[in-house]
Amino acid sequence: MMTQAAFVYTPRFNDYDFGPGHPLKPIRVARTHELLRACGLLEPASVSVVKPSVADEGAVALVHTREYIDAVRAPSEGRSVRRPLEFGLGTIDNPIVEGLYEGSAIIVGASVLAADLVIDGKADVAFNPAGGLHHAHRARAAGFCVLNDCAVAIAHTLKRCGDGTKAVYVDIDAHHGDGVQEAFYDRRDVLTISLHESGRYLFPGTGSVSEIGEGEGKGFSVNVPFSPYTHDEIYLWAFREVVVPLLEAFEPDFVFTQLGVDTHHTDPLTHMSCTTRGYMGVVEEIAQRAPRWIAFGGGGYDVTAVPRAWTLAFARMAQLEAPQRIPDSQAEHYGKAEKPIPLHDAETPVIDEDWARVAREFAEESVKEIRERVFEFHGLGEGD
Ligand SMILES: [Zn+2]
User: Quick one: how many helices (H) and strands (E) in the chain?
Assistant: First the structure.
């Protein structure tokens, strides 16, 4: 059987826009759509492009408080937000803009639709490139994220599929997936795993190995912090040591992933040193263990890197072969059009030897601590 893959897309994703000076640029999502189309990856009969609509408020309320939803809605209804900073709104990261609610809720609607397509068997895998807004809290916007589409889609899935349903959330964004972790911190039916640049160096500052969940959920929140300048080889090693055994032991019904690309070495907001090769190494490990897979986009602030990485990722999800090169019609967005531009990174960053050693030791320490603190909750020995 061919893998049935859904790409969730609407030009309305452009409405999630905090203005020209803001680092989160909706164009990266539109360019992903353009690049996938130009590569012919949306043409096969096994691929469908599906248009989302704004999420029901009831779905949004599975994760967010009514008071917060009301605050996010205020600009659309011509009201001013009362005490906006209490809700994380009106900051440099999360300015109050016109249509804030609709722009956010269409992304939530897209992630819920991606989940529904997979739950209903209409797709085996589904990708919402505008999703992945993992920093949004129950009643507070943070880190460019207003509504947490990832947490809503997971909560919606558990509600629809009933007791005993298990979901895993794997977050490979360079920043800690704090909002999603928080939403399920005391639950054991959702295993959240976030790999990220350590909070010592990067927003939001959380995500240490000691955050393992609480109460019933103890052992079901997992954090893999990395040092700056962590490169493909170290990242993939840690992923295989931690995520692969946990995924196999947990046996989830659904795999959710946040596929942020801000671990890329050219990303202007972070300090990681990964390339599309390491990124796709991780995507490959997930693909082999995720028959029912809902993927979201996420961070990524180099607009020449993000569409390439997401095109490669979607091709793998759909079990299609991506072309080697960027089609001519898209080349102008990715460099000099005179010579062919590969879809994968052409270059690997050179990393200072001392930093490479620091990065390796840091990752080894993270892996060791996770084995000691978390593996026992999953019937895994420290040496497994
Ligand atoms: Zn990020």
Answer: 10, 8
145 secondary structure, DSSP code: B
In a domain, 81, yes or no: yes
Ligand 1 centroid, distance to 16 Cα (angstroms): 16
Ligand 1 center to 204 CA (angstroms): 10
Range of 47's domain?
A: 5-192+255-349
Nearest residue to 34 (alpha-carbon basis) of 382, 361, 307: 307
State the Cα angle at 197 between 114 and 97, rounded to 5°.
Answer: 55
Q: What does the pLDDT look like over 61-104, one tens digit per residue?
A: 999 999 999 999 999 999 999 899 999 999 999 999 999 999 99
Instruction: CATH number of the domain at 135, please.
Output: 3.40.800.20
Q: What is the DSSP letter of 191?
A: E
Residue 35 tokens, joined:
């690049």
CA distances 27 to 35, 135, 304, Å, are: 12, 21, 10
Alpha-carbon separation of residue 382 from 57, 207, 235, 242 (angstroms): 44, 21, 20, 11
Whether 226 is in a domain gets the answer no
Residue 25 lies in a domain: yes
Q: Which residues contact 199 (CB under 8 A, 6 or more apart)?
A: 176, 205, 206, 207, 208, 225
pTM of structure = 0.98
Catalytic-role residue among 135, 137, 156, 264: 135
Give, in order, the Cα–Cα distances in Å from 94 to each of 16, 17, 268: 11, 10, 18
How far, in Å, is the centroid of ligand 1 from the Cα of 199? 12
Helix/strand/coil percentages in the chain, nearest 5: 40, 15, 45
Specify if 231 maps to a domain: no
To the query of whether residue 156 is one of the catalytic residues in this protein, the response is no
121 Cα to the center of ligand 1, angstroms: 31
Q: What is the CA radius of gyration of the chain?
A: 20
Average pLDDT for 372-383: 91
Percent of the chain whose predicted confidence (pLDDT) is above 90 = 95
The total number of structural domains in the chain stands at 1
Mean pLDDT of 280-304: 97
Q: How far apart are CA 260 and CA 310, in angstroms?
A: 9
Helices (H), 74-220: 100-119, 149-161, 178-183
